[in-house]
Amino acid sequence: MATIKVLLRKKSNAQMLYPIVIRVTKNRKSSYIYTGQYVDKKYWDDVNQKIKRSHPNASRLNHLLLVKMTEVNEKLLEMQYSKKKKSISKFKKELLNNNTANFRTVSNLYLNNINNRKKINQYLTEKNRIDQFIKFSRNSELEFQDIDTSLLRKFESFLLYNKKLKSRTVANYMITIRTVYNLAIREDYAERNNYPFGRGRYQIRIPDTKKIGLTIEEVRCLEEATGLSDAQQHALNVWLLSFYFAGMRITDVIQLKWRDLKDNRLYYRMNKNSKLVSLKIPNKAQKIIDQYSFLKTTTSNLVFPDLWDTNLDDPVKLRIRIKTITRNFNRHLKIIANSVGIEKNLSMHTSRHTFGHISGDKIPIQMLQKLYRHSSITTTMQYQANFINKDADEALDKVIDF
pTM surpassing 0.70? Predict the structure, then answer.
């Protein structure tokens, strides 16, 4: 007699979330059927084999688990009263064949996992890419075996020449499709033999990009800029503060709170990867912060006033508002750049590139990793490679200086 149980596997994903699986045991041999759902350990009730009520989507997810359990149980009953004996592996294969999923349904599993982690920016970006691919295929029930190298190359051409997207953006679209396909294979919804990515098939090529930052002299021009409007000065203040804090992202800058500033240090949690950060407040940064100290008397705890009228607990509205603020800041920064004679493109993100350009190879890579808040030192090395030109310049001089 086979038994079934819902449980968490011990191995987590990169976000420290654990997969919920259905374990089927027969003759002391177990097989695991993945449900496609991942949760934090604290939300799992192992005794009752369900998600705790404290989880924001507990009702929906527990209903999904109940449906899955019912399907498995019905299949077990069929197997029990069948005259043909079946192994546990064959049972699992038959069950999965009865629960086939297409690209859309597996994409929804992928998006739900992102949404459950409260990564609203990533969720909306990935959803748009998936929707565009399904729309291009003209098949809302697109099966994984229908995703071949021909379809992928046609979609790539469509993005490049019809949508006029940059090569790096196109690569991101293809990475999303590959991620969903890998999830389908991992959950036994797609066959590895049909996998269209890799050598000899469709290869995702990530183009080299050159990140250009300002020089020290150009930053000084910005620091000494005069005759600016209030809106322009505010945009410049936010840009400089971002630079002074090692290229802090604008999403984090405009959400800084007064309580994040303690004992001449900045303490905050990064929006992108939820990392806790602690940085000394440089004198230049403190002077800018002091200009906004009168705002402490308001009901808002934010250092900058840009998000006063925005519900910070609504991730969708917050994302839309930040995009609008960034667009307005970038427009002001272009005007400022022209007024001080800077020909390079000046935007909020340029502050991060500027910090990398000026730091160059002056700071040990391990310290740069800490300042950039990168999870991997490889990411720091790849990022910093854009700004380290000393060796190449010296090699060039050795050849042509004769």
Answer: no
